[in-house]
Predict the structure of SpoIIE family protein phosphatase.
Amino acid sequence: MDHLFFHNFFTVSGLNYVIFTLFFAGYLLTLRDRTAATRDLIFLFTIISSMALAYFLAYLIPRPIFAYHRWISVAVSLYGTSHVSLFLLNYPEPIWPRFRKIYFWSTFVISSIVTLAFVYQSLSAPKVYEFDGHYYDVDLPVLGRIVGAVILLYVLFFVITGVIRIVRAKKRFPLVVMLLAFLFIVFVPGIFNLLNRLNLLDREVFQTIWNISGVAGAFVFLVIYVNHMTERTTLLMKLYAISLVTVLLILQAVNFHLLRDREGMYDSLQVQKGYRAIVDQTYRSEDLSCIARVNADGTSSVVYEGEAETLPGLCRQSSVQQAAQRVLQRYLNGDSVAAIKATTAEALLPALSGTLNWLQSEKQRHSEAGMDESAHRQQILKDLKKGRNRIRRVRGIIERLPGADLRAEFQKAAETLKSDPFLAARLEAALTGPDDFFKDRSSLLALFPEPLSPGDRGYGLDRQAAAHEDPLDGKYITYYLSSGQQLYQVDFRYEAYRSFLNEGSFVMNNLQLGVTVLIMLGYPIFFLGALLQPLRSLLGGVETVNRGDLNVQVPVKIEDEIGFLTRNFNSMVDSIRTAREELREYADQLEQRVIERTEELQNTLVEVRSLKEVQDGDYFLTSLLLRPLSANHVPEDSPCIVDFVVKQKKQFTFRRWKEEIGGDLCTAHRIVLRGRPYIFAVNADAMGKSIQGAGGALVLGAVIESLVERTKYSELDRELLPEKWLKLAFVELHRVFESFDGSMLVSLIMSLIDEETGFVYFINAEHPLPVLVRDGQASFIEQAEPLRKLGMTGMSGFISIQTISLQIGDTLIFGSDGKDDLVMGEKDGVRIINEDESLFLSIAARTQGNPSQMAQILSEQYELMDDLSLLSIRYQPDSDEHRRRRAVSRQLKENIEAVRSGSIEPHEGIQLLLKGLSEYPENLQLHKQLASLYLKTGQYGRAIIHMEKYLRFRPEDDEMLYRLFLLMKKRNLLARAAEYGEIYHLRHPDDRRVTKELMEVYARLNNKVREEKFRKRLETMQEG
């Protein structure tokens, strides 16, 4: 052997990995105050670099002694993979110290036992040369699989640990990327290693994946860890790390492509040499070992053979493979299987039966599928190329079979391969063949030659030369070349192949080492003046300032980003120095300035207190003015029990009085309209806070008092119907506030409650919906279109009055929006505002409408955001009086029923009912039935009398009200008809019937203004 060292792609990649991991470990060693996680990484990447170095030496020096590199690779794989979990248990901070200790010692013991067992077994195991990896290995297939399984178990554990840390971490991204990087470094190579040990994958593929996946994973891990670690480091070391790993990663990609191209170049050159040697018998290259011509019958004759000293090649030891290649060539050129069998040497047919049977079965299968001859042979060629790896798998299994009983062991191993159609015929031919097939491994291997296409490279081992002094002797590169109808086997020395690859790989390794040295030595020189010295000067200035010396100026050497920072640092130091001098001067005069400032503050405080007292005086006077206006003037004997609570948001203290001020107002009075007592109740909320809202409430209260007093002394006002009085009162209030041009607005509910019947008339001007509490349940009284606030300019249209009839025990509640504007609590420093309107309903139902209790719950359980006012009206009439109006004798009930059923003549019925009316003058049914009988008999005047008396006690009967309106219109009592029609229209402003009738009434009364207003209203309703 001319050389001791033979470089190739694996040595280049291995050296790249060695530099990569060693630098990473060295970089981490430079950190100060290293954490436990960093120490774990130093250990991990140090042993990984030792494994990479072991592989590098095994690839570099192809000698049997280096088969023991597996000691290092097995130990590192076990200890390293188990150590990943320890890192994850320590990063970003240590957890589960007791479990970590148990895990460390458990995995250490298991790894040590497996490693020692491997070392012991390898001492007596045969050493084989792996052509697919170009290195020596110890032949321990079973133990190798066990090692792979243990590694995968460790991988599973560190994946579980990583997932737990990711779930618990605040910053998940670094941990996710690190876990993925570890999977590339450990898990991906582990999977491919196990596949290789199971003969499912070439060693060459595994080594390629191990290098590329490991370098890529380590690169990603380094970038993430450097940017998220907490240890102190230097900028230069970060530049080292990122620059070196980036360059090495790029070189790894370049190496892969360049050396793959060189492999292809070698095949091209050797094929050219082979063809030239075939046609030119005078041409024999130095690395040529032998040439054999394969005859049509499968036999061969040696055309050229090197001398024993120059290694004669395998041309005389490859008879079965030569015959198999010739069979495939003839079949692909058009010969049939039968023709091939007929012309093939009989001695070779048993060994070729597997190949011939496979061709026969494929021919039959393709014919049945309708495939023509050309397509069939193209498919055979594709199957041969794909089947090469499967033949290699079978050969790998054979090479690792125990030697006691080859037939039995092979039969057992073949069970898992019989499902493959490409292998089934070959396996069957071998298992049913003579015992000569199983006399040794070489005989069995000969039955499974690799199918090589022209120009494909094959490897061969001369087992007779295995004990030669040179470990590369007896190893050959084989090509099968077609020349016309002839087939030739051409062998070249394997050592020449390694020497050819060594030329390019040696340069790439030198380049890697050179780049590493250049970066390690060149960076300090390059960055000394451009980066390091300016940074050190700036850091020196910072340290000087930290010691308290502000008389420092850092020189600006280079006008770049560091120069910009330095200039701004000098400016900052100048500013601090100036400020400190001013502060010192200020401190010298501090005592005098404190006295002066204290005097100024005292004078300001006296002035503020004086202004505050004046303001509180204004507040106090306003609250005194509001107090009589917000009062309950309903007598205690009234059947309508009125109660209210007002809690203003603004509270203040004036001298010894504690008061409150705001815009909420509640007031209640008794007034008499047409001889009937009514309760006039108002709940209002004036716009604005404190004094502004109080001003609006003061104006509102004064006008309401004026309305009430005027009604007491004005005969004209007392004769108004309740709907008319309520409408005029609202109009008057609106006009007062409209004069403020929108600067003072009021929302309110104003109501009239008939004390005798409990019938309620009310107007809602953009105020919260009233609440009715009946039979222990609270509900809103809905309204289609509430009026706008008092004082809103541009209001037009008709006023609507809502009505509701209270039953005995009912409670009607009016309240301002303070009952809903509540702070429920806080979440993350943000107040939670109430958005549930039904909350107040539950409180109203729970307290049965008691204002004091409702206000107490709202103020104690929640934070009020606005003024709060609640007014309740409980209808509790005299039950005896209520029953008296509805009580009649049994005889009178029978008479009323007889009149209603029509079994008595109208005139007779009138007499009977009049007799009953003398006994029960306020009975509703008597007045209703009399009105009906008078209408039937044409006595309209008397009907009107009884209809009005009926409506006195049942004002909620809108149908009777409408009939009375129409009757008066018919009787030409137009003024009274207009009055009752207006009342009905106030209750039902969208009723087209009454709108049209009122227009006609006012036309007959010659009231053009009202006629035109109702005409426009009717047109608007028809358009809608």
The chain has a mean pLDDT of 81. The chain is about 60% helix and 15% strand.
